[in-house]
Amino acid sequence: MTSSIRKVRSTLGQPLLAKIFHWINIISLILMIGSGLQIYNANPVFGGRGGWQFPDFLLLGGWLGGGRHWHFGAMWLFSLNLLWYGLYIFVSRRWQRRFADGGDLKALQVSQNPKRKNYAWHRLVYTAIVPVLVLAILSGLAMYKPAQLYWLSGLFGSWQNLRTVHFITVPTVILFTIAHSLLALKVGSFRLIKSMFF
Predict the structure, then answer these.
(1) What is the dihedral of CA 82, 85, 91, 95, to 10 degrees?
(2) How many Å apart are CA 184 and CA 190, to the nearest integer?
(3) Which of 8, 2, 3, 75 is nearest to 35 (CA)?
(4) Which of 92, 167, 180 has its CA nearest to residue 130?
(5) Euclidean distance between the first and the last CA atom of the chain, given in angstroms as a whole number
C-alpha cells in the first residue's frame, strides 16, 4: 500500500468519537429547532402571536411550556456535546486539521488547485461557525436564566434584541450544515460524509 493511499484512507476514516459527536449534534439540533419553532409560534419575535406561524409538522412540544422543556433539555445535550468534542479536538490536536490558518487564506488568493481551494473553504466555514455556536449558546442561556445571568442578558441591550439574535443563529447554523456538507462532498466525495456517521 502506497503512502498516498494510506493518506486518503486516514482522511476519509473518522474516529468513533467523531461519529458519536455528529449523531448527537444532528439529533439535538433537530430537537432544538422543532421546539424552538414551537416557542416562536407561541410568542413570535417578529409580529407577536398574530404573526406568521410555522406549520404543526415542524413543531415539537405541543404548547409553549412543552416546547421550552424540550428546547432547554436538548440545549444541554447540544452544549455538553460541543464542549466534550472541543476538548477532544484540543487534546488530540485535530484542531490543526480542522480550523483555518494563514495557509488557507493564501490558498484562496493564489492557489490554482481547485481541491486545495475547496479544502481551504471547508476549514474556513468550519472555523467561522464557532463564534456563531457560542453566540447561540450564550443568548440561549441568557433567556433561560435571565435573573441569574442578568449580566449576560444585559450585554444584548434588550429582551427583544436577545431573542432576535438567538433566532438569527438558527438559519445560520442550518446554512453552515448545508455548506459543510457540500464542501465535504467536494473535498472527499460522499465517502467523507458517510464516514462522519457510519
Answers:
(1) -80
(2) 8
(3) 75
(4) 180
(5) 24
Q: How far is CA 87 from CA 11, 22, 92, 164, in A?
A: 21, 15, 8, 30
d(CA 115, CA 118): 5
- CA–CA separation, 129 and 90 (whole Å): 17
- Nearest CA among 171, 188, 172 for reference residue 115: 188
C-alpha cell at 97: 486539521
Question: pTM of the full predicted structure?
Answer: 0.76
What distance in Å separates the CA atoms of residue 185 and residue 165, rounded to the nearest whole number? 30
In the numeric block, the cell 453566540 is attached to 135
Question: Is the pLDDT score of 6 beyond 80?
Answer: no
Residue positions counted in the chain: 198
pLDDT of residue 13: 65
Task: Give the pLDDT score at 93.
Answer: 80
Q: What is the pLDDT of residues 45-55, one digit of tens each?
A: 666 566 778 88
* Span 72-94, pLDDT tens digits: 999 999 999 989 888 888 888 87
Do the beta carbons of residue 167 and residue 40 sit within 8 Å? Answer: yes
- Fill in the DSSP letter of residue 44: -
